[in-house]
């Protein structure tokens, strides 16, 4: 096995272009290797690449760990960070790795969808920004080209004043969300709701958003209508972890509760 | 009175090694020239082997041994001799070993596995318990009538069967004002120790040394001897540090496979399991069950009759599961006063992974069913569930379901203390509830032995076959030896788990360490006490009978100033007679149980030193999502006199945490073909520290004569019995309906609340 430890982005990109698999915190990649789903013979470690570790205002470097996001990230993203794995996982795991893995259950992803973040991709010859909805294309599938690295996550300059993250899961730590959700609500009532684990990619529940954004101070029945629309809009599957029906239901309940938190 | 008070904390000698990471486990031991072992598993749950060709695998560079059934003696083993080291002709579960390889590294071993040619003709898979015992069901073992087994009736897919009858159940039902029926289904679970097992074997001439992460080194040794035709003195099993077992590492597992590989390869060979292998391959899984209970009772709450039927998923082979039907029957009948009982329990062959002893085998599932049922009974007659248990649970001098009359027991104290520990009558939020359940568990007196010696500096060594997989033998045995000799626990080191050095012991199975090793250690230490007293008597010019051993000294009774230190006596002894003691401790007899007719019975109706418990659990239920959080646990146990409070409380806390997992999150999911769908921690969810509620522990210290030393009883498995049941009863208070299936996942709780749910 060949391993590179570049200290600059161009060196890292060269290794990737030569076919090396990027390794950030390794908390997803090593699991893949453990299960025999990935057997890379060429690896490039990203931790020493300074450009990836930087974090300037709304531009979060791909190498920023969950622990750092927990300390100073925007409200709902920090809340999500706090629920990722365990302290060990949060010390190692990065937002870039979470985005690159693109698991439907990735806890960082609903926030990116809720605030319309974009992903900054760099190859040896180009730089481009993809909106989250163009970047996530399927279960663990993204629009990233093989010779590209995720360099940063670009958030909007201004974030909604109210945000909340929550997940439903089987225990308090180290849990794959049965459903994860971010709700944001701005001063003008504009509401977004993004969900994970209920579709191949993170998704927004646009009908629910539209309906509730029009309500300046939503009544109880409006809140339950919001819940119903979210349950309808999601597209979960049945597997050995949960049924479609339960996921639909839990998604609606969770979204309504997070909205209530934003309204408080 | 504990021998070690809370104020005197004895730090377990293996603790620092384990918490700092410097401790060495099997996977950390490396020998020169060592090879890596890997197994080829069936990967299919039921099939005929049409072709098995390892010739290409043997040619892979770096491969030094490839073995199949052809390369070892043909021997069947297990509590019913239904199993061989390697599959021959038929595979019966996905994790069955078909071939084993040893190679210079893992890559070469994998290449060899890939080069094995094996063709299967799929056979009909048996997974459903009711279907498996229906007429005309396909058989898991076509030829099992020819297998060796003691006291087993052969009948289709029934691997073992128990029936128990006392009184007249029909008459009892006729006397009842109410007859209540309940059906409960439990999914299989796993022991899930944090250390996946490892085995390392090295031959020197015709003798083999095997380092193995086994809870039962002597059973492992005997398994090697039996399957490879070796005398006991040429097989030596050593157990280094272990990262837990919980029953999953009981029995004889892969020691013979690895020893056979090492013999052919003429090199040391090491096998270390992955987590997936740890899930699918060993014959130790807590079985799935279907439990049906019918109880008749009078309007005043008196129980008149109970009928139970239990189906246990035996899996493909019977490692140690043939006594499980009996255990399941006793647990489903419960620690209650009922004169008319009839119980039938069947352990049924399927094409699932074999089941076997996992901490308190059969008890958590059956207790969950029975105690859920008991809350229903209380509701039917309008009684508080605690008062109902106080009225119906057995007490000192009373007769249990199997006709055994109990000596002094502390079940009623357990109920009282568990309930008061959780503040049962407190005001609760409307999404909170408290559930209560009682449990019991037998003790298993058996053979054991210990050697104790004291060297010239007054320091001692205890050599025993006791296992330390978390049992606390490193604490308890020194405490017991020190108490006999007036010394400190720190004065003793333990040499353990070396079958060529230590006397025979059944191992860390059936909560035996204090009970059996403890008695042996005390007996050995007492022999040294006699020697010390004789030496001191000479020195102090007194009679040996008047010598007292205390505080590291021997003194004359009544005159503490007339004393000599044990260190000095040890120095004297070192020049002549040596300070050596050996003990085996005669196992106490099993009590009799009268009036129970048993068919096919492999268990014990009379329970020696039964341990009792009551757990009270406070939960919060999220009614919209079905998510349950455990907020508070109060666990009261009658395990006799407690020798080591820290160790005993640790057992209770660990048992409760396992119980919470079984209640809410742990369950193995199978596909229709009998394969596990979640053989990984990603999808098999144990409880974590973040989930741990406060756990209040009370010990009802009933002095129990003729059991463990100092009036003690065992403690390791009992705490794993009642927690899931108590959680179930708390949930039912909020849902109005019991969740009919274990684990009671959020989804199942939610489905129960909506009406229906998968029973
Ligand atoms: C025990 C455990 C618990 C977990 N719990 C959670 C949880 O609660 N919630 C959750 O969302 N996740 C969880 N995870 C998954 C994982 O920790 C996160 O997804 C984490 O963010 C991955 O980041 P990483 O830096 O470790 O990625 P790595 O494993 O290093 O990489 C993951 C993938 O992304 C690629 N990659 C990494 N960085 C880049 C980059 N800059 N550009 C392009 N490709 C890149 C890698 O090649 C690899 O394919 C858990 C994992 C474990 C082992």
Short overview:
The complex is a heterodimer of chains A (264) and B (759). Chain A is α+β, with helices and mostly antiparallel strands. Chain A contains twelve helices and 14 strands.
Model description:
The complex is a heterodimer of chains A (264) and B (759). Chain A is built from twelve helices and 14 strands. Chain A is an alpha+beta fold. In chain A, 49% of the residues are buried. The mean pLDDT of chain A is 95. In chain A, the strands form four sheets. In chain A, strands 4-5-10-6-7 form a five-stranded antiparallel beta sheet. In chain A, strands 11-12-13-14 form a four-stranded antiparallel beta sheet. Chain A has a three-stranded parallel beta sheet with strand order 1-3-2, with helices on one face. By secondary structure, chain B is of the alpha+beta class. Chain B folds into three domains: 26-123 and 197-272, Aldehyde Oxidoreductase, domain 3 (Alpha-Beta Complex), CATH 3.90.1170.50; 289-445 and 592-753, 2-Layer Sandwich (Aldehyde Oxidoreductase, domain 4), CATH 3.30.365; 446-583, Aldehyde oxidase/xanthine dehydrogenase, molybdopterin binding domain (Aldehyde Oxidoreductase, domain 4), CATH 3.30.365. Chain B is 26% helix and 25% strand. Chain B contains 18 helices and 28 strands. A seven-stranded mixed beta sheet of chain B has the order 3-5-1-12-9-10-11, with helices on both faces. A seven-stranded mixed beta sheet of chain B has the order 24-7-15-14-13-8-28, sandwiched between helices. The mean pLDDT of chain B is 94. Chains A and B meet through helix 12 of A and helix 18 of B.
């Amino acid at each position: 096995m060949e391993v590179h430890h570049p200290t600059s982005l161009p060196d890292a990109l060269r290794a990737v272009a030569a076919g090396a698999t990027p390794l950030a915190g390794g908390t997803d990649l090593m699991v893949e290797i453990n299960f025999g789903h990935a057997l890379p013979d060429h690896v490039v470690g990203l931790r020493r690449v300074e450009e990836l570790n930087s974090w300037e205002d709304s531009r979060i470097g791909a190498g920023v760990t969950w622990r750092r996001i927990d300390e100073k990230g925007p409200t709902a993203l920090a809340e999500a960070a706090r629920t990722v794995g365990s302290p060990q996982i949060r010390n190692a795991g990065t937002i870039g790795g979470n985005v690159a893995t693109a698991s439907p259950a990735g806890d960082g992803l609903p926030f990116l969808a809720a605030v319309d973040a974009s992903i900054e991709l760099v190859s040896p010859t180009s730089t481009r920004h993809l909106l989250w909805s163009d970047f996530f294309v399927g279960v663990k599938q993204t629009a990233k080209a093989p010779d590209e690295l995720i360099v940063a996550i670009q958030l909007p300059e201004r974030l909604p004043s109210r945000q909340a993250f929550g997940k439903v899961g089987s225990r308090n730590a180290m849990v794959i969300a049965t459903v994860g959700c971010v709700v944001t609500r701005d001063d003008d009532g504009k509401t977004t709701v993004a969900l994970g684990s209920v579709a191949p990619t993170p998704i927004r529940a646009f009908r629910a958003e539209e309906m509730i954004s029009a309500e300046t101070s939503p009544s109880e029945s409006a809140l339950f209508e919001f819940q119903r629309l979210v349950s309808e809009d999601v597209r979960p599957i049945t597997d050995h972890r949960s049924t479609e029906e339960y996921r639909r239901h839990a998604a609606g309940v969770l979204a309504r509760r997070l909205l209530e938190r934003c309204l408080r | 009175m504990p021998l070690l008070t809370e104020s005197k904390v004895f730090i377990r000698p293996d603790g620092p090694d384990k918490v700092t990471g410097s401790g060495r486990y099997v996977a950390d031991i490396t020998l020169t020239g060592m090879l890596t072992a890997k197994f080829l598993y069936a990967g299919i749950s039921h099939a005929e082997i049409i072709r098995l060709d390892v010739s290409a695998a043997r040619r892979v560079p770096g491969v030094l041994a490839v073995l199949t059934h052809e390369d070892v003696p043909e021997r069947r083993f297990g509590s019913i001799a239904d199993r061989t080291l390697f599959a021959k002709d038929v595979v019966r579960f996905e994790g069955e070993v078909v071939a084993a390889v040893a190679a210079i590294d893992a890559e070469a071993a994998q290449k060899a596995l890939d080069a094995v040619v094996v063709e299967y003709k799929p056979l009909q898979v048996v997974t459903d318990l009711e279907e498996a015992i229906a007429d005309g069901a396909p058989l898991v073992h076509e030829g099992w009538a020819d297998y060796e087994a003691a006291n087993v009736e052969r009948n289709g897919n029934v691997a073992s069967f128990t029936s128990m009858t006392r009184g007249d159940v029909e008459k009892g039902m006729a006397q009842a004002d109410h007859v209540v029926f309940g059906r409960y289904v439990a999914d299989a679970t796993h022991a899930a120790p944090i250390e996946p097992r490892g085995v390392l074997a090295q031959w020197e001439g015709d003798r083999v040394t095997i380092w193995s992460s086994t809870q039962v080194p002597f059973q492992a040794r005997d398994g090697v001897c039996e399957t490879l035709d070796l005398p006991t003195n040429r097989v030596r099993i050593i157990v280094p540090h272990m990262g837990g077992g919980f029953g999953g590492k009981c029995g004889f597992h892969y020691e013979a496979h690895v020893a056979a590989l090492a013999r052919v390869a003429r090199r040391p060979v090491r096998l270390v399991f992955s987590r997936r292998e740890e899930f699918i391959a060993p014959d130790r899984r807590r079985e799935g069950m279907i439990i049906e209970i019918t109880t008749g009772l009078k309007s005043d709450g008196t129980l008149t009759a109970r009928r139970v039927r239990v189906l246990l998923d035996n899996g493909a082979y019977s490692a140690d599961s043939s006594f499980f039907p009996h255990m399941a029957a006793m647990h489903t009948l419960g620690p209650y006063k009922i004169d008319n009982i009839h119980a039938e329990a069947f352990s049924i062959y399927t094409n699932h992974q074999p089941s076997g002893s996992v901490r308190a085998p059969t008890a958590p599932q059956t207790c969950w069913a029975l105690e859920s049922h008991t809350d229903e009974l209380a509701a039917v007659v309008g009684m508080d569930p605690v008062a109902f248990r106080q009225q119906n649970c057995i007490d000192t001098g009373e007769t249990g379901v199997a006709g055994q009359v109990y000596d002094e027991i502390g079940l009623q104290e357990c109920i009282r203390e568990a309930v008061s520990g959780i503040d049962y009558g407190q005001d609760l939020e409307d999404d909170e509830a408290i559930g209560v359940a009682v449990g019991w568990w037998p003790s298993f007196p058996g053979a054991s032995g210990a050697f104790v010696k004291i060297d010239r500096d007054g320091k001692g060594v205890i050599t025993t076959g006791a296992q330390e997989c978390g049992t606390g033998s490193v604490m308890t045995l020194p405490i017991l030896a020190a108490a006999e000799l007036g010394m400190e626990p720190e004065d003793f080191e333990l040499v353990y788990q070396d079958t060529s050095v230590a006397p025979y012991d059944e191992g860390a199975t059936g909560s035996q360490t204090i009970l059996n090793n403890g008695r042996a250690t005390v007996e050995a230490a007492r022999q040294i006490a006699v020697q010390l007293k004789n030496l001191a008597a000479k020195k102090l010019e007194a009679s040996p009978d008047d010598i007292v051993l205390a505080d590291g000294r021997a003194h004359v009774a009544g005159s503490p100033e007339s004393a000599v230190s044990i260190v000095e006596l040890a120095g004297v002894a070192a020049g002549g007679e040596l300070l050596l003691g050996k003990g085996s401790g005669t196992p106490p007899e099993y009590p009799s149980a009268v009036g129970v007719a048993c068919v096919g019975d492999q268990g014990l109706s009379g329970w020696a030193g039964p341990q009792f418990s009551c757990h009270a659990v406070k939960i919060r239920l999220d009614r919209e999502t079905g998510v349950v959080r455990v907020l508070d646990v109060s666990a009261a146990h009658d395990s006799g006199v407690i020798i080591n409070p820290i160790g005993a409380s640790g057992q209770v806390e660990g048992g409760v945490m396992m119980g919470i997992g079984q209640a809410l999150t742990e369950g193995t999911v199978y596909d229709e073909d009998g394969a596990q769908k979640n053989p990984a921690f990603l999808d098999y969810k144990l409880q974590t520290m973040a989930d741990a509620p406060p756990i209040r522990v009370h010990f009802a210290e009933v002095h129990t004569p003729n059991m463990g030393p100092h009036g003690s009883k065992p403690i390791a498995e009992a705490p794993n019995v009642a927690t899931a049941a108590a959680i179930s009863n708390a949930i039912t208070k909020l849902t109005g309906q019991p969740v009919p299936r274990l684990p009671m996942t959020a989804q199942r709780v939610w489905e129960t609340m909506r009406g229906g749910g998968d029973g």
